[in-house]
Amino acid sequence: MRVISKQRNSKMCIMCGLDNEYGVKAPFYNMEDGSVMTLFRYRYQHQSYPGRVHGGLITAMIDELGLRALWAKDLSEESFGVTFSIDTKYRKPVVYDQELIGRGVTVRENSRIFVTEACIMDAEGAILANGTVKYFKLDVNKIAEDAEAHEELCYLEEDGVKEIVFEK
């Protein structure tokens, strides 16, 4: 699927923060179908059992893909929200040091909430985990006092990714 544009990365987010030494540092892309996708790898610091990624970090990526799915749909990084419900299904073990693909899409939205579906796949497109996330729309300044979204989401590093191939 064709990449339309790249989304910004933050400084310290555990999923996308480029300054977080323990973070995943995942890049996110707005796709031609209105979804968001990422190509990423968990590292050994993200394990629970040896060779396996911690379930909380799997769910954290599902959550990250959810908010970013709204940004991809709107082609804007101006909307924010807080998660009020997340339901993750763990389908197969997720191992670290392996290329993974994440995809999120907005499935419902009104003036107060939005609902997204997201998944993590292996390089062949097999779904390893998926989930539904529900968010309350909320101004970033109500989420965190003195938050400045554009100061935190400050990195936009082009990497030449023009297409992400996966099986649907």
Automatic annotation (TrEMBL):
One of its GO terms (molecular function) is acyl-CoA hydrolase activity. GO terms for cellular component: cytoplasm; membrane. It is an enzyme of class 3 (hydrolase). It is a peripheral membrane protein. GO terms for biological process: fatty acid metabolic process. It is found in: Cell projection, Ruffle membrane; Cytoplasm; Membrane. Residues 51-126 form the Thioesterase domain. Its EC number is 3.1.2.2. It catalyses: decanoyl-CoA + H2O = decanoate + CoA + H(+); dodecanoyl-CoA + H2O = dodecanoate + CoA + H(+); (5Z,8Z,11Z,14Z)-eicosatetraenoyl-CoA + H2O = (5Z,8Z,11Z,14Z)-eicosatetraenoate + CoA + H(+); tetradecanoyl-CoA + H2O = tetradecanoate + CoA + H(+). Keywords: Apoptosis, Cell membrane, Cell projection, Cytoplasm, Fatty acid metabolism, Hydrolase, Lipid metabolism, Membrane, Transit peptide. This is Acyl-coenzyme A thioesterase THEM4. It comes from Lentihominibacter hominis.
